[in-house]
Every structure is written in structure tokens, then in C-alpha cells.
Amino acid sequence: MSSARRGAAGAAPSDADHAFMARALALAGRGLYSTSPNPMVGAVVVREGRIVAEGWHRHAGGAHAEASALARWRPRRGPATLYVTLEPCVHQGRTPPCVDAILAAPVARVVVAAQDPDPRVNGRGIAALKKAGIAVEVGVRGPEAAFLNRSFFHARTTGLPYVILKSAMTLDGRIADRRGGSFWITSEAARREGKRLREEVDAIVAGSRTVRVDDPFLARLREHPPRPPLLKVILDPEAAVPAGARVFGDGRVVWVVGRSARVRRLPATASLLRLSAPGGRFPVETLLRNLAALGVQSVLVEGGGETVGGFLRAGLAQEAALFYGMKVMGEGVNAVTGFSNSVAGAIGFRPFAVRRPGGDLYLRGSLCSPA
After folding, report:
1. Phi, psi (5° rounding) for residue 76?
2. pLDDT, mean over the chain
3. CA torsion angle for 316, 272, 156, 133 (degrees, to 10)?
């Protein structure tokens, strides 16, 4: 298609641009539980001020948002504007390049929320569209698009999985009483909300004490579309978790043990990862790099205070999901152990979600440097 049929480049984004991109972002969010390791992407096609087609990336390996939206555009009368939440890909993966689908359609302008940090794309898709004479606007609702795909962006830019720390505690920060009792600090509704977090991530990490004391399955709720099984990662320096623990009952398990730990029997569901564990503590960055090599781009840490403290010590957690039961316990087991800081240097917490499941308090937010 000649550039004469394309729109004029350089038009400033309008209120309508922001509104149409908001719709594309809402569509993208539908892929929250099914697209990993791919990003969530939504797209809408607009002609003469109204949406004529829309689509989103439904699952990894399926059609990308742009191709899905353009395939629904009938009849194809141009010129039109395509709104897409992430830069169109320009490489061949399990599906053809999205740029090719755009070039084959009467699209005069493409509005992109955020540039794709994947090295295979990272500006190349935008450049290809501009070279073909298509007007391209980048950055409309960009921060929202980056936040939606924060785990994908983090994994692509750092090479490490995005880490969410999860803890359920009393109002005074206790996760168990002095005898280790913790059933139940929070309500059933809060516990279900906590389990729902597992739907969002590729892997769950728990410490050996949690597994031995609570004997959990660490399973998903399975409320959402099928996705690759949840990878369960058990941090067990002394290989003290019994092979008959329920966590080994199904799914995929990475059993992380010390280099000299004696493993008497390896369950059929488990693979063994041996790491050095000076002082009984695994190096968190080494652990995360090993998980990244397995294709993990997001992790939920459900361990006890020592496990959570280890990630905080390493400075390698990006987010926290905190559930507070409406109780005060007094003496008991702290939600975080093995980590301390000054008031001035304390880790900041910037909440982006506040809810009251079952009358309890649920805070979810980003971990950041103190203000």
C-alpha cells in the first residue's frame, strides 16, 4: 500500500486516542491468567470515530491482538486507526509478525501505548511501520500499559523473574503464635483471594518449614482458562521435607537443596536443584536465575518470615500482597525475620489495590525506595 493512503504523521494524541486506548487496555487485561510468558495485549480498530473491530491476545501460542482485531474487521474499508497496547512484533514466533498483518490492511495510523522491551522487537516494529509510511504515535497511556505487563517488562529488562511477596498476618505482624499455630489468622474469603494470586504467576516459592508444618498442596484454584502448570519451588537446604509431602502429589516441583544435603528419595514430580546455602540461606539471585532458565518470568513467594526476609535482604522483590486478619496476637512468629533496616532506609510500600475480603484487610502494592 502506498504511503499516500496512509495518514499524516505527527498528529498529537487526542482525548479520543486516550479513550480508545483505555478500551484496548481493558481488552488486554482479559489475558491476565493465560498469556504468560507472552505479554497481555489488546487492540481496537477505529474508523470515522467508532470502533469497528477489536481483539486481544487470549493465550500463549494463539493469535496476537493486532491480528485478531484486523481479522474481525469486515468489510475492510480504510483508512483506519489501530490502537494497540504494546508495540507490534516484527519477528516470527509461534505466530507470524504482527507488523505484516498491519501492512496488509488499510491502516493509516497506529497508536501504541508502550514500546516492547523484548530485544527481538524494542523499536523495530515501530520503525517498520514508519518506514511503510504509517503514522505512529507512541506513549498514549504508556505507564498504564507498562504496569499491566510489569512482570513481562521486568523479566525482559533484568533477566530475572518478577517477585511478589505474599503474607497473611495479624494486625501486629504475626503469622503464627508461639507454638506455630496459624489456622486461621484470616477469613476464608481472604485466603481464597490469596490463592487467586497463584493464577497470575508462573511459579510459587515456599520454605521448608512452611511445607513441613502446613503440608500444603500449593495448587491453583483453576478458576481461569488452562495455562502451563504452576511450578512449585521448595527451598529446603537440609532436604528435610519428606518425600511423601502433599506438595509432591501433582504438578511440577523444583526441590532446591544444599549441595551436600542427602536426598533419600526423589518424588516422581520433582526435579532436584542443588545450590550452595551458606548459613542455611540460598543466594536469591542465583535461585532466580535458575528459575528464569526454566522459563519462569513471575514468582509468588509464600514462604514464612525467613523466606520473605531473604528476598528483602537481596533487594529482589518488586511487589507485596499483604493480608491482615482483624486480630492482635502479641507474642508470636514475625512475618519477616532475618532482615532489618533503619527507619530512614526502610523499604517503601506503594499500594495500588486495597480491599476488604471477608472483613479483613488486603493491601497489594509495589516495593520501592523510601520517599
Report:
1. -85, 85
2. 91
3. -170
> In what helix (H) or strand (E) does residue 98 lie, and over which residues does it extend?
helix 98-103
Residue 109 has phi, psi (to 5 degrees) of -145, 140
Give the pLDDT band (50/70/90) at residue 11: low
**Residue 66 annotated in active site:** yes
Contact (Cβ atoms closer than 8 angstroms) between residue 149 and residue 39: yes
Question: Which residue in the list 54, 66, 87, 302 is annotated as catalytic?
Answer: 66
Q: pLDDT band at residue 2, thresholds of 50, 70 and 90?
A: very low
| Per-residue pLDDT band at 1 (split at 50, 70, 90) | very low
Residue type present at position 288 = L
pLDDT of res. 5: 36
Do the Cβ atoms of 110 and 81 come closer than 8 Å?
yes
CATH architecture of the domain covering 159-368: 3-Layer(aba) Sandwich (3.40)
CA separation for the pair 154, 133 (Å, rounded): 32
Query: ∠ CA 97-102-104 to the nearest 5 degrees?
Result: 100
Helix, strand or coil, per DSSP, at residue 252: strand
Cell numbers placing 7: 495518514
Overall CATH class of domain 3-149: alpha beta
Domain coordinates of the chain in residue numbers?
3-149, 159-368
- 51-83 burial by CB neighbour count: b if 16+ within 10 A, else e? ebbbbbbbeeebbbbbbbbbeebeeeebbbbbb
The DSSP call for residue 89 is P
